[in-house]
Design goal:
The chain is an alpha+beta fold. It has four helices and six strands. The chain is globular and about 40 Å long.
Length: 153
C-alpha cells in the first residue's frame, strides 16, 4: 500500500503541493528531484544542472498569480522589481531592497561551494555587497564589478 500522496498523484495526476501537504513535504519533493537530477551527473555537468534548477525555481517564484478576488483598482503603485537569479561567470546574483532607493546584491556560487571574500577575509555561503545602489540593476552592476576585481572568489 502506497502513501496518500502516491494514491492522489496516481488517481488524479496532481502533486502533493496541489493537495496542500505543507511546506516541509514540498521541500522534501524538491530535494528528491534535485538529488535525482544530480545522481549520475559528472562533475563538469553539475554546475550546468544546478544553473537550470535555479532558473526553474526563479521562473516559478516570479510568476504572479492574481487572487480570484483581486481588484486591480486597489493595487498600489508599482514598485521596482528586484533582480533575481542573474548568472555571471560562476556566480548567481540576487538583489534586495534595504530601504527606499537603497538596493544591495547577494552573490552566491553556482556550484553551491562557499564564497571567499578577500577584504575582510571571510568564507561564507553568500556575500552581500556593502554599497547601496539606487536601483536593483545598479546593485547587480556593483556585484559584477566585485567579481571582476577578484574581491569575491
Amino acid at each position: 500500500m502506497g502513501t496518500i500522496r502516491q494514491f492522489l498523484a496516481g488517481a488524479t495526476g496532481a502533486t502533493g503541493i496541489e493537495y496542500r501537504f505543507g511546506a516541509d513535504d514540498a521541500k522534501a519533493e524538491i530535494g528528491a528531484a534535485v538529488r535525482y537530477l544530480l545522481q549520475d551527473a559528472p562533475d563538469g555537468a553539475r554546475g550546468e544542472i544546478v544553473r537550470e534548477i535555479v532558473d526553474i525555481v526563479h521562473s516559478v517564484a516570479n510568476e504572479q498569480v492574481p487572487s480570484p478576488h483581486h481588484d486591480p483598482l486597489d493595487s498600489p503603485a508599482p514598485k521596482q522589481a528586484f533582480v533575481s537569479g542573474v548568472t555571471y561567470r560562476d556566480y548567481v546574483i540576487d538583489t534586495f531592497q534595504r530601504d527606499q532607493d537603497n538596493w544591495r546584491a547577494t552573490i552566491r556560487r553556482l556550484d553551491g561551494k562557499k564564497v571567499r571574500v578577500n577584504v575582510p577575509p571571510l568564507v561564507r555561503g553568500e556575500f552581500t555587497t556593502s554599497i547601496d545602489a539606487l536601483t536593483a540593476e545598479k546593485a547587480v552592476e556593483f556585484a559584477k564589478k566585485a567579481i571582476e576585481r577578484g574581491e569575491v572568489v
